Structure formats: C-alpha cells, structure tokens
C-alpha cells in the first residue's frame, strides 16, 4: 500500500496468470478480485481520503497481457 496526501493505492502483484477463460471470454480470476477488494475495503475503512487499487500480473505462458479499467463497489481498479 502507498499512502499520500488524501489518496492511497493498494497494489497487488500476481506472478501467475490472472486471467481465465469462461464461455469463450477472458476474465479476471474471481479469487484475485475478491482478495484485492477485501484488502482495499479494510484500508479504505481507516482512511479519510480516496482509495484506489491496482492488480498487476506478470506476463507468463507467452501471454500478451491486457489492460483493463474496472470499478467494483465504487473502487477504481486498473488491471
């Protein structure tokens, strides 16, 4: 976690594939999302400023990688 003036960023790094495929669509593995949102909700509760979360995944298995911007429960999460 990085905390500055009125803003904090929760950073989660995964060194394994963060995407899975379901019915022909690529999606973020649900467990990774739950973990990150859980961390952010804990830190958000004790901080008066803005909270953001970032999920980083290492490029593995010749993955081309993806860049996504999602929001969960008002929490912006770039992937």
Q: Summarize the biggest pleated sheet.
A: 3 strands, mixed
**Low-pLDDT stretches:** none
For the residues shown, what is the average pLDDT?
A: 82
Number of contiguous helices: 1
Shape: elongated
Radius of gyration, in Å, reads 13 Å
Overall description:
The chain has one helix at residues 30-45, and strands spanning 2-4, 7-14, 19-22, 25-28, 50-57, 69-72, 75-78. The strands form three sheets. The chain has a three-stranded mixed sheet with strand order 1-2-5, covered by helices on one side. Strands 3-4 form a two-stranded antiparallel sheet. It has 79 residues and is of the alpha+beta class. A hairpin with a 2-residue loop joins strand 3 and strand 4. The longest helix is centred in the middle third of the chain and has 16 residues, at 30-45. The relative contact order is 0.27. Helix content is 20%, strand content 44%. It starts with a strand and ends with a strand.
In short:
This protein has 79 residues and is of the alpha+beta class. It has 1 helix and 7 strands.
